[in-house]
Amino acid sequence: MRVLSKSISAIVPTYNNENVIEECLKSLLLQSREFNEIVVVDNNSVDRTAEIAKKFGAKVYKIKSNRSKARNIGAKVAKSKIVAFIESDSVYSRQWVEEVLKGFEKYKCVIDRRAVYKPRTFIAKMNDAVFDMRYKNYKPFSIWAIDKELFEKIGGFDERLEAFEDVELGDRLISKGYKIYFAKKAVQYHKGEPKTLTEALRRSWWFGLRAKHYYAVQPSKKPKLKIKLFIFLTFLILLPPVLLAMLFGIYIILLFRVLGKIKLKYAWFYPIYSIINAWIFTIAYVYSLKRNSI
Known about the structure:
The protein is of the alpha/beta class. The chain has 2 domains: 4-190, Spore Coat Polysaccharide Biosynthesis Protein SpsA, Chain A (Alpha-Beta Complex), CATH 3.90.550; 197-291, no CATH class. It is built from 12 helices and 8 strands. The longest helix is centred in the C-terminal third of the chain and has 22 residues, at 270-291. It starts with a strand and ends with a helix.
């Protein structure tokens, strides 16, 4: 297949996303520098997802796949020099392509900047503020756009993974000496960010259940189980006054570390929010090891 030079393809894996994919595709079509093509890989949706994608001129491939496999399929059929992996529940800033392509002047892989889509709840606004804080001194560790030749050379996404597949690909690229360009003005507004504490905890549980597969592929990233179990047990016995005092002391330290970096009205809650989510992630991870069937 002939690959067009200085061109970029959008690869959009999706499944039953008729409520969000239309706005995503509109944002891709309204870019200041157009995509050369939009490839939608649909996991046999039973709603109008594929129909909507075709209406917007996307090349649609319906095939049973997980997210990693869908991205690999899309990259394989793409005709462009660069492949960009798009989230179907995100809306992209008008200069996204233009800003991403700047990275390819010297680099072969690029990560964009994530933001919360129209944050309205306290949790959503706090998460968006945290994104602002994180990206002030950001060291990229995953990718969303890559030179197609390099993508094929590195082996694409690991299709065994249902989560952390972008991080694992970044691990391999970094281990091979490749640097990832941070396109900070290429903003992806993600609708999938949690809007409530319940949604946040459910997501932490979901990632925790699937973390063992990532650690199996990248064993050097695996946390020491003794530390995880210690955290788990600590939270089970939080009521004793001494532990509560210790926790309060740690909280005060964390609070002052984030003050000045995040808005004050979020700073008091974010350390607690982070610890609770880490706890839920840990419980799910330990649970998945015990079940050995997730």
